[in-house]
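retry 2 of 3: previous attempt timed out while embedding flavin mononucleotide. Reduced batch size to 1 and resubmitted. Inputs unchanged:
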Amino acid sequence: MNNSTIDLLCRHRSIRAYLSTALSDEQIDCIFKAAQAASSSSFLQCSTIIRITDQDKRQQLAHDAGEQSYVMSAPEFWVFCADFNRHHQIDSSVNLGKAEQLLLGCIDTAIMAQNAVVAAESLGLGCVYIGGVRNHIDHVTTLLKLPRYVLPLFGLCIGYPDQNPDPKPRLPRSLIFFDNEYQMMDKTILSQYDQQMSQYYSERPTNQKPGGWSDKIPTTINKEQRDFMLSYLHKQGWITK
Ligand SMILES: Cc1cc2nc3c(=O)[nH]c(=O)nc-3n(C[C@H](O)[C@H](O)[C@H](O)COP(=O)(O)O)c2cc1C
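retry 2 succeeded.
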């Protein structure tokens, strides 16, 4: 079964090269409204978007994110934050700092951001999330003047694509979609996927690399450890109890 929404979702690919064409106010409004229409746990509305229009701040964020050039060149760059500061402003006696609130803030904010991505893609735009803003999260917090109980989760580049990459093959359904109970992984199916990814990585026009998917797991996980995160979270008022 297919329809235009499902087609759009299945055509998704991250865009890392943009035309300089600015988005109209109407487009920005439309993407924002779609983002805000997302579900919200207990209707707490615990997310905030910071649109970066200041070029110097954009440059610093691009640097913080590991010199990802598209952070600078994308017409729009939005930082998505989990945010319980608003609730603290409403009533400073509310019991913040619970692990559950961290989960809730991350879940709601990611759902909201994905609505923005889908809306943008439906307008012919492209996007890429930038988790790299967490590489120097202290600096990002100072730069964006984030108070306690606000947690910058990721950035989002939005703009007209100046590239047309193919969608990336995903894990086979049988490895991630189970009936009734968890299933340990079938290694034969994994190795078939690795072959498919190996072909994809060697044939794509940019950033070609050897190997499949699973051989990259240790390096990828180890490189993204950000060991400072727990103390940052505590300092910012998250998971203190
Ligand atoms: C929360 C999050 C953070 C990400 N951070 C980055 C990033 O910092 N830089 C980047 O180039 N891509 C980033 N990505 C994009 C992923 O690399 C990309 O979604 C993945 O490789 C799958 O490719 P696709 O989006 O083209 O299907 C991020 C994706 C997510 C969901």
